[in-house]
Every structure is written in C-alpha cells, then in structure tokens.
Write a structure and sequence with these properties.
The protein is mainly beta. The protein has 3 helices and 17 strands. The termini are far apart.
C-alpha cells in the first residue's frame, strides 16, 4: 500500500467531516475514536503522544471501552452469508473486516510521568475473497500491558515538549479459519452461531512484546502547534503480524480561548494486531470548552485496513473539577457502537 501525503489525507478527512457520519485503542476516552486527538492528546492514553503526558491533571485514572468498529455494511453482509448465498461474497470483499474491542485500564499521572496498566480484548474477523476457496479468519487477541513514560516541556516557558514511553506487553491469541463451502451438505456458513467470528473466547498462543514510543510537540506561533509521534520504534514479528514503526503528524490551531482544532494523520501504513494487513488512519477534531469545568469534543476519523476505508464520527463530554474528571465517549457505528467511560480522582 503506497503511503499518501499528509495534506491529501487531511483534505479527505476534513471533507468527510461535512458529510453524515484502530489504529489505537481509545483508552481513557482520549483519542480520535471519540472526537479527540492522538498527537495532541489529553495526556491520559498510554498509546498516544508521550510528549503530552504533562497535560493530564495529577490523579488516578480508570478506563472502560467497549464496542465494534466495522467496514461499511459488514454486519448485514455477514448475516446474509448465514443463508449460504454465494452472491453475497463479492459485496463482502468490499467490507471484509470487523473489530470488537473491550478494554480496561488504570493509570497514574503526576509531574509529566505516566504509569498505566491496561488490558485489551480484541475479537476480529477478516474475509479473504479467494475465488476458489474464500475463507474467514476469526481471531481472539488479548494483551496485558504495563506502560511507563514521561514527557512535557523541558523547561518553564519552553515551546518544545518531548516524551518517551516504554510498553511491556504480554499477548495471547487464538485463531479460527472458517472456509465457505456452500456446496457441502451441512456446512457451517459465515456468521452462524457455530462460527461467530467475533465471539471467540479461546487463546492458544502466547508471546511478549517490548515497544518504545516517542513524541514531539512544537509551538510554531501563539496558538499554532505541530506534533509528531512514532510508535513501536523497534520492529517485531508477532506471529504473522509484522510490527513496524508508524509515524503520525498533526497540526493544532487555537480558534479563540475556548476552541481547538486538530488535524492529523498517519504518514505510513503498517500492520497492527490483530490484523495481518496494513492499517492507516486520519482524523479531524474540535474541542470546545463551555467553561473550566465542562468541554465537548467532536471529531471524525477515517480508518483504512488493507484497501477498505470507513469513516466514523465520535464525541466526548468531559466534566472536570479540581479533584474529579468524568469523560463519556461515543462513536457512531454498526451493531455495537463504541463507547467509553473515564473517571479520574485526585
């Protein structure tokens, strides 16, 4: 897959934002999935820009995420294949993937340092449109992750913020490959109860991953910021998924004292668990602060897995006091829309 220039991807996403409505898990309701930003994050998500860790208020954070992300019409096409109709297969080739996510996390943030323990449960499916023997790859992947990072301004009044993050991950994976044999009597078709590609609960393989992330934010002028992130700087094969560094860049503008606009996109496409195909994402988001205690985040994200893209809108409502932060996030989608809850106590 040929990487696209950042400007072109930003234009695509900005246009999509005017129409009706993975790669990272949106832990702590902090990221493009729920209308936020990865490059200019709130400083809570251990998978976002570590240069922003100093932005998070001091406290203990708790996170829960649940829901689906799918290619357009994937859910209805999977249901149609339960009837064993081969005519649905060409359409399914244009909507071949789905991802069901459930994640939990706890983190501590203080003085620009972030310590987090998170668990992600990922159930995915990927259709392979082979003309002779099409098949569905269903996977169950679970990761327990310990993250330790730090970031923020190097000195008081600095216009540059830098950060690094170290992740130690223990992965488990189980896989089912279900062929589509419509001519075989008694065959189990895609999506039937016996072959629910997003309902797996068994893992048979285990492995470890050590990852290093880095980030940078530059204040180009008052109210204008440029950010760059790099995750998984060390390459690793995790079963059939080849983890390589992914770079992301973004621009943030202050539109007055209460509103921030962020535009960002991945500069290259890489494979990420649990899909053994390349992924790339772009987003545009708007953060509006009603008051020091309440803010609304609105955004649109375009996610491309292999050669199939999907665009979704998301929103987050934040309520914050000196000792409490509550964030509720929602992303529109099929079947089970993504939702998230974050609570911080100080």
């Amino acid at each position: 897959m040929t990487p696209k220039p950042l400007l072109a991807r930003i234009v695509v996403v900005a246009c999509a934002a005017c129409a009706p409505l993975w790669a990272q898990t949106p832990l702590f309701t902090d990221g493009p999935t729920f209308g936020g930003s990865k490059v200019f994050s709130e400083g809570m998500n251990p998978l976002a820009n570590p240069a922003r860790f100093g932005q998070a208020p001091t406290g203990y954070y708790f996170s829960f995420v649940d829901g689906d992300q799918r290619a357009q019409n994937n859910s209805s096409l999977i249901a149609d294949t339960t009837l064993g109709d081969p005519a649905t297969l060409p359409a399914l080739a244009n909507a071949p993937w789905a991802l069901r996510t459930r994640a939990y996390g706890v983190a501590s943030s203080k003085n620009g340092a972030d310590l987090a323990l998170t668990r992600e449960e990922l159930n995915s499916m990927l259709f392979t449109p082979d003309p002779i023997n099409p098949s569905m790859d269903g996977r169950r992947a679970v990761v327990d992750r310990l993250s330790l990072g730090g970031g923020g301004p190097m000195q008081q009044g600095s216009t540059t913020a830098m950060g690094v993050n170290l992740r130690v991950e223990r992965w488990e994976m189980g896989e089912i490959v279900q062929p589509y044999n419509s001519g075989v009597p008694g065959a189990v078709y895609f999506g039937s109860a016996e072959s629910d590609m997003l309902g797996g609960s068994t893992t048979t393989n285990r492995s470890w991953n050590l990852a290093l992330d880095a980030g940078l934010v530059l204040e180009l002028a008052q109210g204008v910021r440029l950010g760059i992130t790099a995750d998984q700087l060390n390459q690793k094969h995790l079963w059939d998924v080849y983890l390589q560094p992914q770079f992301r860049a973004g621009l943030q503008l202050d539109l007055g004292q209460q509103t921030k606009l962020s535009l960002e996109g991945d500069l290259n496409s890489v494979e990420r668990m649990p899909f053994p195909v390349k992924q790339q994402a772009s987003s545009a988001s708007l953060r509006y602060a009603f008051s020091p205690a309440a803010a609304l985040l609105l955004g649109v994200e375009q996610r491309k897995i292999d050669d199939v893209s999907v665009t979704r809108g998301g929103a987050t409502l934040q309520i914050k006091t000196s000792s409490l932060l509550l964030a509720i996030g929602f992303q529109a989608g099929q079947d089970r829309p993504m939702k998230s809850l974050t609570l911080m106590v100080n």
